[in-house]
């Protein structure tokens, strides 16, 4: 049995979220702790715990996260300026909610690389 996460509660409307897009397969809502002027999450309605669980059986569904991101970017008018999609995986990746989600960040020129440490040994 897979442990439910807070995102199941958002899917089931048991807790509030600012939903910006929904279809049969995916839901998108604003991140509660935005890291850019525009920051929302696109999630599958069924739980996939981490990026390590992406496989040929769910590849089409995972692709739909990107389809939704591109559609929202077009509708919200930031597609041409650009945006960043991030999926964190497990502790070193910074994942805190174990239901995969595409972070979509936009609304300013985003720095790269996204971390401060140097790669010097
Ligand atoms: P990650 O650290 O990649 O697992 O990202 C989890 C994201 O979920 C974080 O950016 C949180 O700010 C966001 N988050 C957690 N709880 C909520 C919530 N109730 N509504 C919207 N975003 C949330």
From TrEMBL:
Organism: Psychrosphaera haliotis
UniProt protein name: HIT domain-containing protein
Catalytic residue positions: 101 (tele-amp-histidine intermediate)
Annotated Pfam families: HIT
PROSITE patterns: HIT_1, HIT_2
Coiled coil regions, renumbered to chain: none
Domain HIT: 6-115
MF annotations from Gene Ontology: catalytic activity
Short motif Histidine triad motif, span: 99-103
């Amino acid at each position: 049995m897979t442990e439910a996460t807070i995102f199941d509660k958002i899917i089931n409307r048991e807790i509030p979220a600012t939903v910006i897009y929904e279809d049969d397969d995916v839901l998108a809502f604003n991140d509660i702790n935005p890291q850019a002027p525009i920051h929302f999450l696109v999630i599958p309605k069924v739980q996939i715990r981490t990026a390590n669980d992406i496989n040929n059986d769910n590849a089409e569904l995972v692709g739909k996260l990107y389809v939704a991101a591109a559609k929202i970017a077009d509708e919200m008018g930031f597609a041409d300026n650009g945006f960043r999609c991030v999926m964190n995986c497990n502790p070193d990746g910074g994942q805190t909610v174990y239901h995969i989600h595409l972070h979509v960040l936009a609304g300013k020129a985003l720095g790269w690389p996204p971390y401060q440490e140097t790669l010097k040994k």
